Amino acid sequence: MAESPGKPAHGGRLRMLAVGAHPDDIELGAGGLVAKAHEQGHRVAFLILTDEGAHGPQRRREAVRAAGALGVAPGDVHFAGFPDGRLRADGPSVGRVRQLVRRYGIRPDVVVTHTQADSHNDHAEAGRLAHAAFRDTAYLHFSIHISAESDRFSPRVFVRLTPERLRAKSRALACYGSQARRIGRLELAKYEEKLGQSARLGRAEGFEVAVQYGTPDALLRTVGLSDSAFHRFWQPVVADGTVTLLYGVPDRGDRESLVHRHAAQDELRRAFIDCWPPPYPLREQFADTDEALTVAAAGSVVTTCGPEDNRIAARLRASGRLVWAAETDGAGRGGLRDLRTGRLLRGGARRHLGCVARIENPFRRGGYAVVAGGATEAATRAGLGLLADPGRCPGLLDVFDREPAAHVAYAVDPVTGGLTLVEVRHGSDTPPL
């Protein structure tokens, strides 16, 4: 896994190191992720920390065969040789791991290792040891179904176990003949189905995310490994904190508009309840309160409605960071006004226009502001629907995977609900892509 210095690796290829306490841990908790990384051309190496005395040679042979079933070359499977059951994340152990990774030229962008939400001492110590041994990296933490503490495990990245990945994982686990009883002690399939439910994926593996300070690019690229559209969009926004929905009162006196807007907001709430493991990150507050600006300065925010109905939306527009503003014409269709050039993108009877933006929060460095709005109620509701399920519009995730800040104009057919992208801007770009 030796690479020339510099991060990240060229061409978008990630250098991943999977650190397991025992042979078979990586395959149990992250076999699908390793198989996906192999599919996408990322470079993966294994570091297995413990041996089991007289059984060590057999377990090593099994580990090399299992890694091969997931696409990892024998030369990329390394063993630290710590005693099983007595793993410690102390100074000598950290020094030994650092010596090993220097010897083999391992410079990972992403370290995949155990969660702390695990009742097995070696597993928890392996996670702490991996954190102590590496710098300038992102971490994905997996769980082992046999010893997982589900109430504390809070995954944010999810990898779908497609038929191909599931076959690769099954072949890898079948290599561990000496561990068949242990592996089968609890039903792995049910555990993976439970993980997948919170990501709308069916059967899946889940991973907690941690990023060392000063490596924001690592976070974005790590989240990009996820098959969950919801988490890929929202993880950079929420990070380890909260996000506050600051809503105004649209079209005061128009009961139908209020009903539609409330239904769309309910959809967003339900998406966070269903898809985000505790702690629940979504907060809510009216934008016209005295506390709204304080909230906006404290973390990430979501705004709905236009500047005439939402004080924070008005301040976001005044900041110069937004590209489009919705305009409604006399026929109720309107369009999107380019705030930088004055150009108007026009809607129509079957083309109602709206926009979704994820930008740097001008009130708080390091936070995000997510903005959704439309020239009609149908378009605004579609925008909030995109926030609840970003995967419903083809191409939308590709835009936000590419850069943290982006602006997307979309069209919705009010009859069929069909969505298409109209125009995309990245960051502070002026010309359309």
Describe what you observe in this structure:
The protein has 433 residues and is α/β, with parallel strands linked by helices. The chain has two domains: 10-227, LmbE-like (Rossmann fold, 3-Layer(aba) Sandwich); 243-426, Chitobiase, domain 2 (2-Layer Sandwich). It is built from 14 helices and 17 strands. The protein has helices spanning 25-39, 56-69, 91-103, 121-133, 163-174, 180-183, 188-197, 216-223, 229-238, 255-275, 292-296, 311-318, 377-388, 396-402, and strands at 15-20, 43-51, 77-83, 110-114, 138-142, 157-160, 204-211, 243-247, 282-286, 300-303, 324-327, 335-338, 344-346, 352-360, 368-374, 406-412, 419-426. The protein has a seven-stranded mixed beta sheet, sandwiched between helices. The radius of gyration is 24 Å and the shape is elongated.
Question: Between the first and last Cα atoms, what is the distance in angstroms?
Answer: 36 Å
Q: So what's the CATH class of the largest domain?
A: Alpha Beta
Determine the CATH superfamily of the largest domain: LmbE-like
Reported by name, the CATH topology of the largest domain is Rossmann fold
Tally of helical runs = 14
Main sheet characteristics: 7 strands, mixed
Structural class: alpha/beta
Question: What CATH architecture of the largest domain would you give?
Answer: 3-Layer(aba) Sandwich
Tell me the helix content. 25-40%
Number of strands: 17
Low-confidence stretches: 2-11, 429-433
Number of domains: 2
Strand adjacency order, main sheet: 3-2-1-4-5-7-6
Beta percentage is 15-25%
What value does the average pLDDT take? 88
- Name the shape in a single word: elongated
Using only C-alpha atoms, the radius of gyration works out to 24 Å
